[in-house]
Please model this.
Amino acid sequence: MNGSNFLYFNFSLNNFTNFSSFGPYYLHNYAAKICSLEKYIIICKTTSHMQNITAHACRLKPGQDLKKGIQTMVDNLQIKAGWIGTCVGSLTGYTIRFANQATTSIKTGYFEIVGLTGTVSINGSHLHILLSDDKGETIGGHLCDGCIVYTTAEIVICNSNDFVFTRENDGTTPWLELQIEKV
Model:
């Protein structure tokens, strides 16, 4: 996109036979060179090599609340800066909030979890879910309490001790927004 303030590039690791030798150091320097161009908008506040990433896996069983189960895992592991690596499973209904809406949407039925993303912390989490129904139609929004596991929810949460995530009203929006502190 010529003249744009955004930079798009496609990067594939398929050309490299050993990712560990390629490593995050090169990726960090490559990104730093791109981000150093003043005409591009820089969205990231902090950069880290994040060599101390840990992955935690769990399975929620039928009848458990998805959001509460994730937050319990985060609290028990004392995760201060984490994110959802992956999640698959199914629900017997959903309670989600759509963008810019004050109330939640609730529906019963059987839904496949086809995507879950977000940041997690003992200081507050922000999760979005994508679900499909028995016809393959999808719906998504903010994950709220009340999404009950049908058969399973297989979850991987990653975290780094390089940061602390908090949620504060910083004046940019009416909501508690992510604040990132480098440790």
In short: The first helix runs from residue 19 to 35. The two ends are 37 Å apart (CA to CA). The helical segments are 19-35, 66-77. The chain has two domains: 1-44, 53-182.
